[in-house]
Write a structure and sequence with these properties.
- The complex is a heterodimer of chains A (256) and B (238).
- Chain A is mainly alpha-helical.
- Chain A folds into 2 domains: 151 residues, no CATH class; 81 residues, no CATH class.
- Chain A contains 11 helices and 2 strands, in the order H-H-H-H-H-E-E-H-H-H-H-H-H.
- A two-stranded antiparallel sheet of chain A has the order 1-2.
- Chain B contains 8 helices and 2 strands; from the N terminus they run H-H-E-E-H-H-H-H-H-H.
- The longest helix of chain B has 34 residues.
- Classes of the chains: A mainly alpha (256), B mainly alpha (238).
């Protein structure tokens, strides 16, 4: 298992954003998202401003726009929900393209579309510039309880094992004449799932004991060694984006 | 495999309600961390990580409900409660949700409190209460365990989904008026189907684990091993 550990969404590159310490990026991303969510939905211009910020960060981080757009399809179910809202909403109604729609519903749909998309893009930018290992280190430095970072560490460590094992078992089923389609694939999946779990657990237990015997105490060495923690300059550099976003949000709140 | 979100994304529920639920979630998580610390020993630590990884992985596998349109994925609250107990189980689900929100954008970061309340707290708590009650009532056989797992998983999924309906009523982006009942019906109906799938998979997984490594099933630890009679194929259509 020495090679081939692909990072979930990480884009290996060397950019100013990639070089920032993870805790700084996490804090900036969360602050940016909160500013976006706090913005009143009637302030249409503010969301344009946020989009410019996202594009600017993506350009500095050298993340391809195509990749961002493809991955942001994740919010599709809620977009569909958003499109239903103008027809379901109560209250004042208006005419749009010959259809009677609710004004409130229209704003609600826009709200979900704009805030949801900006949030997804912000997380994708974080994921593209931060390895999962760094993510855990960042959470730990942000004083996340050790119990949680420990669970998260093991989760990310075992994920690849589980997915690989599941893929092998699926290929094995296919080559024995199984035809995984529609609901019937559930049976094959369900009967194999227990075996998959046990196999992964027994491997994971060995990994854990090996880690313990090599001095693992529940935290990554980078954290307790205090190496590469963020400097004041890095905090300031990363805070520009959420600061601008907060400014936009405050202006929008005052104006509407 | 297309990865579709089912968690609440930014903008669906308004800020104040999201903030209230963030506080609720934070308080509940603090309690879970406190209680979970007493349980997390050398056996439970890798198990908790694996349960979290497992939930993460099965949430990526979507299964179609109707061939067109609706697809759902599993939640895993009942599985976590059965295998690692309610405290660590809720933490596992919460960790999954946090990582998904941070790096996948699956569920908005600002809505994390709502998602954790629904899936990690309501889902796991409903499942665990049912598990405790059913294990006491049902015979201590593999069939009893399978029924327990199935029912608790089914109910936990529907309970978590209804948590969303309640939150939507408190602070939805759009006032749906009387349509809220329709929303509740649609969501409960869809999640009933998802719950059946979840129940089957939870029952199969827990049965297999209980059969070979009963020491790993938290819910069975206090009550002794399941009688090792031949395992009927409960929960899995054969």
């Amino acid at each position: 298992m020495g090679a081939g550990h692909t990072q979930l969404l990480y884009h290996c590159s060397d950019s100013p954003v990639h070089r920032l310490p993870p805790e700084v990026k996490i804090a900036a991303m969360v602050a940016f998202t909160l500013a976006v969510v706090a913005t009143p939905r009637e302030a249409l211009w503010a969301f344009g401003g946020y989009a410019v910020l996202v594009v600017a960060v993506a350009a500095v981080a050298r993340v391809r726009p195509g990749w961002l757009l493809r991955r942001s399809l994740i919010e599709l179910p809620f977009v569909l929900f958003a499109f239903a809202l103008p027809f379901l909403g109560a209250g004042e109604r208006t005419e749009l393209l010959g259809l009677s729609v609710s004004v409130d519903g229209l704003y609600g749909a826009w709200n979900i579309l704009a805030k949801g998309t900006l949030g997804v893009l912000a997380s994708l930018l974080l994921a593209a510039t931060t390895t999962t290992r760094d993510l855990i280190i960042g959470l730990d430095r942000l004083r996340c309880p050790q119990l949680l970072t420990q669970i998260a560490t093991f989760m990310l460590r075992y994920l690849e094992v589980l997915v690989g094992e599941a893929r092998r078992m699926r290929v094995a089923r296919l080559s024995r004449g199984d035809d995984p389609r529609f609901v019937w694939q559930l049976r094959g999946f369900a009967t194999g799932v227990g075996a998959l779990f046990l196999r992964a657990y027994e491997r994971g237990e060995r990994v854990y004991l090996a880690m313990l015997s090599r001095g693992y105490t529940g935290r990554m060495p980078q954290v307790w060694q205090g190496a590469e923690a963020a400097t004041v300059g890095q905090w300031l550099a990363a805070s520009t984006v959420p600061a601008v976003a907060a400014g936009v949000a405050a202006t929008a709140l005052v104006l509407t | 495999m297309e990865n579709l979100a089912m968690h609440i994304s930014n903008g669906i529920i308004n800020g104040p309600v999201a903030a209230i639920f963030a506080v609720i979630a934070l308080a509940a998580m603090a309690l879970c961390v406190q209680r979970g610390r007493q349980h997390l020993d050398d056996r439970l630590a890798p198990m908790a990580g694996l349960v979290a990884a497992f939930i993460f992985a099965v949430q990526m596998i979507n299964f179609p409900i109707f061939t067109a349109g609706v697809s759902g994925h599993l939640l895993g609250g009942a599985l976590a409660a059965l295998l690692v107990g309610p405290w660590v189980g809720a933490l596992c689900v919460a960790v999954v949700l946090t990582v998904q929100a941070l790096v996948f954008g699956d569920g908005g970061v600002a809505m994390l409190g709502l998602n954790i309340t629904n899936l990690a707290i309501v889902g796991t708590a409903a499942a665990y209460l049912l598990i405790v009650a059913l294990l006491r009532v049902l015979p201590r056989t593999p069939a009893g365990l399978a029924v327990t797992a199935f029912v608790s998983a089914l109910v936990s999924v529907v309970a978590a989904a209804l948590g969303f309906v309640l939150q939507y009523q408190l602070g939805g982006a759009v006032d749906l008026g009387d349509n809220i009942a329709g929303l509740a019906g649609t969501i409960a109906g869809t999640h009933l189907l998802i719950g059946i799938g979840e129940g089957l998979i939870t029952a199969m997984t827990v049965l297999t684990v209980a059969k070979t490594r009963p020491d790993l099933v938290y819910a069975l630890r206090a009550r002794g091993p399941v009688a090792s009679t031949p395992i009927p194929a409960v929960g899995g259509a054969r």
